[in-house]
C-alpha cells in the first residue's frame, strides 16, 4: 500500500474548524487505501505565545533544555487534538510525542538546534510502519526530537518540514505533502503583486534559493532532508483535499544538496568596460547584456564598480564579444573604452550549510591567500560562492577549496 506523509502547518490547524477539515482530508486518503502519516505543527501562534510568557516570567535565565521542553507543549497539544479528531471520524489513530517509547526522531543533545541521528531514526521509524500495517494513522509532533538519554530537543527553523521529509525518507513514502496557508509556490509574493501566479513545479535548488531570500513557504533547512526519489508538493489547506494540485517540488538531482565544488573545464575571458560613473547611468547594464544575448554569447558573471563593468564569458567567443561590445562603447556617450583581459578559471562552491556558517568566504579564500593565489573576482549568495582566479592557478585553487569543504 502507498505511504504518504502529510504535514500540516500551524495556520492549517489554526482553529477547530481547520483541524476537522485537515483530519477529514487525511481520512479521505486513508479510505482510498493509502497509509497516511501525519506531522503536525503547534496550533497557530501557540509557540509564540509560550515564548512570550517564558520571556516575561524567566527572561534570559531559562536554559536551552528547559526552553525545548516548554515549547514542545505546542506540538504535544496539537497532535492529541488532531488524533482525537481523526478517531471521531471513525478511523483509528495514535498520537506520538517525544515522551513515548515509539518516538522515531532521535537527535544529539543540542536542545535548540538538534542534529538528527539518521541511523537511530531509521531504526525507530520501523515502529511507525508497524502502526501503519495495523491500519492506524500515526500523528507525530513536528519540530521536536529526543536525544539518546530521553531529553526533548528541537530541530530549529523549518523543524516541522524537516520532520515530514525525514519521515518520508525513513518510511520510503510515495509522497510528502506540505499543507500551508498558501496554494503552492507563487511567482512572487501575492500580497505585493496581484498578478502573482502559482507555479506547477519548482526544483529543490530553485526552492532553496527562493527560501534563502525571504520566501516563507519552506525553510531552506528542511530542503536538505528532501529525498530525491520521493515526490513532494505544497498545497493550501483551504482545499481540504490532499490530492489537490499545488506546486510539485522536483529533485534534488543526485547529491546536489550536499557540499559540491566545480571547476570549469575551459578558460573564461574577462572583458572590462569603463566609463565615468557608469553605475549611475540607467540602461548601461542592459545594453551590454542585451548585445551579448543577441549574439548568442553567455555570461558567467558580472562585476560592477562605479566606473566599470566586468563580464566573464567563454574564451572561445571572447574575440566576437570584444568586437560587438566595442561597437556599443564607441556609440554610447557614457562609455569610453573596453579591454579583453586574462584567461580565468571559475570555481563554484555550493552548500546549504553556508546559510549558517559565519565567515565562510574567509574559510574558502584563506588557503588561496596562504598559497599566494590571487583572486580576480568573487561573488556569493547564501548558498554558494564563486571564485575567479588566473587560469594557471585554477587546478591548485580548486583542490585547496575542495579540501576546505571536506
From TrEMBL:
GO annotation, cellular component aspect: cytosol
Protein name: Aspartokinase
TM spans (from-to): none
Catalytic activity: L-aspartate + ATP = 4-phospho-L-aspartate + ADP
UniProt-listed SUPFAM superfamilies: ACT-like, Carbamate kinase-like
UniProt-listed GO biological process terms: homoserine biosynthetic process; lysine biosynthetic process via diaminopimelate; threonine biosynthetic process
ACT domain ranges (all copies): 349-406
Keywords: Amino-acid biosynthesis, ATP-binding, Kinase, Nucleotide-binding, Transferase
Documented EC number(s): 2.7.2.4
Pfam families with a match to the protein in the record: AA_kinase (PF00696), ACT_7 (PF13840), ACT_9 (PF22468)
Family: Belongs to the aspartokinase family.
Pathway: Amino-acid biosynthesis; L-threonine biosynthesis; L-threonine from L-aspartate: step 1/5; Amino-acid biosynthesis; L-methionine biosynthesis via de novo pathway; L-homoserine from L-aspartate: step 1/3; Amino-acid biosynthesis; L-lysine biosynthesis via DAP pathway; (S)-tetrahydrodipicolinate from L-aspartate: step 1/4
Gene3D superfamilies cross-referenced by the UniProt entry: 3.30.70.260, Acetylglutamate kinase-like, VC0802-like
Amino acid at each position: 500500500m502507498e505511504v504518504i506523509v502529510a504535514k500540516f502547518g500551524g495556520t492549517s490547524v489554526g482553529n477547530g474548524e481547520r483541524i476537522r477539515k485537515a483530519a477529514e482530508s487525511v481520512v479521505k486518503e486513508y479510505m482510498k487505501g493509502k497509509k497516511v502519516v501525519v506531522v503536525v505543527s503547534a496550533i497557530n501562534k501557540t509557540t509564540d505565545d509560550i515564548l512570550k510568557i517564558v520571556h516575561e516570567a524567566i527572561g534570559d535565565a531559562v536554559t536551552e533544555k528547559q526552553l525545548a521542553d516548554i515549547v514542545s507543549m505546542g506540538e504535544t497539544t496539537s497532535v492529541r487534538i488532531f488524533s482525537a479528531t481523526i478517531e471521531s471520524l471513525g478511523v483509528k489513530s495514535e498520537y506520538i510525542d517525544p515522551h513515548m517509547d515509539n518516538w522515531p526522531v532521535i537527535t544529539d543533545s543540542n536542545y535548540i538546534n538538534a542534529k538528527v541521528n539518521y541511523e537511530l531514526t531509521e531504526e525507530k521509524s520501523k515502529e511507525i510502519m508497524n502502526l501503519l500495517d495495523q491500519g492506524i494513522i500515526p500523528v507525530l509532533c513536528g519540530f521536536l526530537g529526543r536525544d539518546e538519554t530521553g531529553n526533548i530537543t528541537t530541530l530549529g527553523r523549518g523543524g516541522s518540514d524537516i520532520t515530514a521529509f525525514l519521515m518520508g525518507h525513513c518510511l520510503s513514502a510515495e509522497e510528502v505533502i506540505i499543507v500551508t496557508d498558501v496554494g503552492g509556490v507563487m511567482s512572487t509574493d501575492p500580497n505585493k503583486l496581484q498578478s502573482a501566479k502559482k507555479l506547477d513545479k519548482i526544483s529543490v535548488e530553485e526552492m532553496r534559493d527562493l527560501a534563502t531570500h525571504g520566501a516563507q513557504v519552506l525553510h531552506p533547512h528542511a530542503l536538505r532532508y528532501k529525498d530525491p526519489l520521493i515526490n513532494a508538493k505544497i498545497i493550501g489547506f483551504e482545499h481540504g483535499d490532499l490530492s489537490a494540485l499545488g506546486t510539485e517540488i522536483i529533485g534534488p538531482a543526485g547529491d546536489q544538496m550536499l557540499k559540491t565544488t566545480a571547476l570549469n573545464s575551459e578558460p573564461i575571458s574577462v572583458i572590462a568596460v569603463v566609463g565615468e560613473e557608469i553605475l549611475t547611468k540607467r540602461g548601461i547594464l542592459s545594453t551590454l547584456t542585451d548585445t551579448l544575448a543577441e549574439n548568442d554569447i553567455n555570461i558567467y558573471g558580472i562585476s560592477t564598480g562605479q566606473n566599470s563593468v566586468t563580464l566573464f564569458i567563454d574564451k572561445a567567443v571572447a574575440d566576437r564579444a570584444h568586437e560587438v561590445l566595442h561597437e556599443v562603447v564607441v556609440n554610447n556617450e557614457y562609455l569610453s573604452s573596453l579591454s579583453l583581459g586574462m584567461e580565468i578559471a571559475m570555481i563554484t562552491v555550493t552548500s546549504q550549510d553556508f546559510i549558517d556558517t559565519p565567515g565562510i568566504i574567509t574559510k574558502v579564500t584563506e588557503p588561496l591567500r596562504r598559497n599566494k593565489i590571487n583572486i580576480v573576482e568573487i561573488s556569493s549568495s547564501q548558498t554558494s560562492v564563486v571564485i575567479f582566479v588566473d587560469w594557471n592557478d585554477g587546478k591548485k585553487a580548486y583542490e585547496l577549496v575542495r579540501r576546505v569543504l571536506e
